[in-house]
Design brief:
heterodimer, A: 259 residues, alpha/beta, 2-enoyl-CoA Hydratase, Chain A, domain 1, eight-stranded mixed beta sheet, 12 helices, globular, B: 287 residues, seven-stranded mixed beta sheet, 10 helices, 38% helix, 16% strand
Chain lengths: 259, 287
């Protein structure tokens, strides 16, 4: 499949959103709202649930179902409050020794007036720093669009997986084409050049695993439940120091060249 | 619009916007006169440089390259450069990237968009990184991320404070996802440095945006800015397109961030060195 087709598939209407993954993979989901500072950002859903009996913290971008829901959730583009809500739940996960599982699907962090005034950049930066030393396993799964810093702010994890037809990129192909070449029609070329497919990212070592996508998503849920359980159990068995050291090294090696 | 939700494009409106200015800046020393972009006063180039590249009439802070910044901020002859040999290659085989790198090297005289090393400020030993707008508007690719990570690791190992001068359009598109990963990588190194009890001071200079603001620029224990510096996540054009409204005057400028609580203070260039020395003194670590 060409890169741009992947982009379209990742964004396709009818593709299961964050909440579908949560409710189909986990049991007993209890949602918690709000960042305790300003508001509840519905672009990100967070709470606790059971995974094969094990209590876990789950966090997901949610783009919304119908039109009204999409608007309320700002199409999955979070404000700073969304990232702060996520971080608050991660801190609770650390306290209660629950693994954290994040599902990522966003075109990016919201570029708006309120978002800037309330510190969009600061909120993302804080998540990057805090997640790096969060003393509990973190697993991130890209289920749709991985839009730049807005995606990374939930993806500083011990392992990052991508569904086969998802993308993860520093910028959207549309943005890249219009900025670099001042030519929106070159979007396909931009998509190719950015190397944003799951196969590309596996090759770069940015992700650990590609989850194959059969027609029927219920198969994916079953497979993910097993794989997530197995992986977080493995990470939970590690001494915290080893876990954090591995997490540091995981990102430390990205982009290193000799000398 | 196509742009919706893409946070990276901000830089580029900036880059485009700044090109005209950048093209002139390297030539300041050669030319006799410079027009202040803020008050239009005609300034003599040599006098402007003597005045730390600040307009004597309106106080406009011109952007300064990394070497000039080091000359202004560090004690004379104390700077030792690290990792100066590192330069970028076209890892993704991204169209026209080599050409851009060459142009950036010619414009800035640097191998990459950040200069790192050690030196002294008011007698206090520090590790420093100084970004350079003349090199692809200070955008962060793998080499910039690696150099900044290394200087934090060095500072952690030697219990040194880090003083970082930021200027950046954000993560560099031409290195794709690996540029994005530098945000996490540098943040990891900042966190280790911080957890070891070391001081990190960020000095934000005009403009700092995108993935650099959303990582190490906003991670300082103390964050100060030069007057009127642009500080943002998304670029103004993107925000205007998204919101379908004009942005208010002074939006995303240092003064507004101070009011909103995101920077500790705004310090004029002429006062910066003494200010940094005072902070370093107050944070002196006892044995």
């Amino acid at each position: 499949m060409e890169a741009y087709e992947r982009v379209l598939t990742a964004r396709a209407k009818g593709r299961p959103s964050g909440l579908s993954f949560i409710t189909n993979i986990f049991e007993d989901f209890v949602e918690f709202h709000g960042d305790r500072r300003f508001a509840d950002d519905k672009a990100i859903v967070a709470g606790i649930a059971r995974l094969c009996g094990m209590p876990v913290t789950v966090i997901a971008h949610e783009k919304g179902s119908d039109t009204q829901d999409k608007v309320e959730r700002n199409f999955g583009s979070a404000h700073p409050e969304g990232y702060r809500k996520a971080l608050r739940q991660m801190k609770l996960a650390e306290k209660f020794r629950r693994p954290v599982v994040c599902f990522i699907d966003t075109s990016g962090a919201f570029p708006g007036i309120g978002a800037e005034e309330r510190g969009q950049a600061q909120a993302i930066a804080e998540n990057l720093m805090e997640m790096m030393t969060l003393k509990t396993p973190i697993l991130a799964v890209l289920i749709g669009e991985g839009g730049s810093g807005g995606a990374l702010a939930l993806a500083v994890a011990d392992e990052v997986w991508m569904l086969q037809n998802t993308i993860y990129s520093v910028i959207s192909p549309e943005g890249c084409a219009s900025i670099l070449w001042k030519d929106a029609s070159r979007v396909k070329e931009a998509a190719e050049s950015l190397r944003l497919t799951a196969e590309d990212l596996l090759e770069f070592g940015v992700i650990e695993r590609i989850i194959k996508e059969p027609e029927d998503f219920s198969e994916i849920y079953v497979r993910l439940r097993e794989q997530i359980y197995e992986t977080v159990s493995k990470h939970r068995a590690l001494p915290v120091e080893t876990l954090l050291d591995n997490r540091y090294k995981r990102f430390r090696k990205l982009g290193v060249r000799e000398a | 619009m196509l742009e919706k939700g893409l946070f990276k494009k901000p830089n580029n409106p900036l880059e485009i916007h700044e090109k005209a200015v950048d093209a002139q800046q390297p030539s300041i020393p050669e030319e006799m006169c410079v027009s202040c972009p803020s008050c239009k006063e005609t300034l003599f180039a040599n006098e402007l440089e003597e005045n730390l590249s600040v307009c004597h009439r309106c106080g406009h802070h011109f952007r300064v390259g990394a070497r000039q910044r080091i000359g202004i901020m560090l004690d004379p002859d104390t700077f030792t450069e690290f990792y100066g040999h590192m330069s970028s290659t076209n890892i993704l085989r991204f169209p026209e990237y080599e050409k851009k790198l060459q142009k950036a090297a010619d414009a800035s005289g640097e191998k990459e968009a950040v200069v790192c090393g050690t030196g002294r400020i008011g007698g206090f030993s520090v590790a420093v990184f100084v970004m350079d707008h003349l090199f692809m508007m200070g955008s962060m690719g793998t080499v910039v991320g690696e150099k900044i990570t290394r200087i934090f690791e060095y500072a952690t190992e030697h219990s040194l404070p880090v003083v970082g001068f930021t200027v950046s359009g954000g993560a560099r598109m031409q290195e794709g996802i690996l540029s994005l990963m530098q945000m996490a990588k540098t943040s990891a190194a900042v966190k280790r440095h911080s957890d070891a009890g070391n001081l990190y001071i960020t000095v934000i200079t005009d403009p700092t945006s995108g993935g650099v603001t959303a990582s190490f620029a906003m991670e300082g224990d103390v964050i100060v800015s030069e007057p009127k510096a642009f500080i943002g996540f998304a670029g103004p054009v993107v925000i205007e397109q998204t919101m379908r409204q004009k942005l208010p005057e002074g939006f995303q400028r240092a003064e507004l961030l101070l009011e909103k609580g995101f920077v500790d203070d705004i310090v004029k260039r002429k006062d910066l060195k003494a200010y940094l020395a005072r902070l370093l003194d107050l944070h002196r670590r006892r044995a």
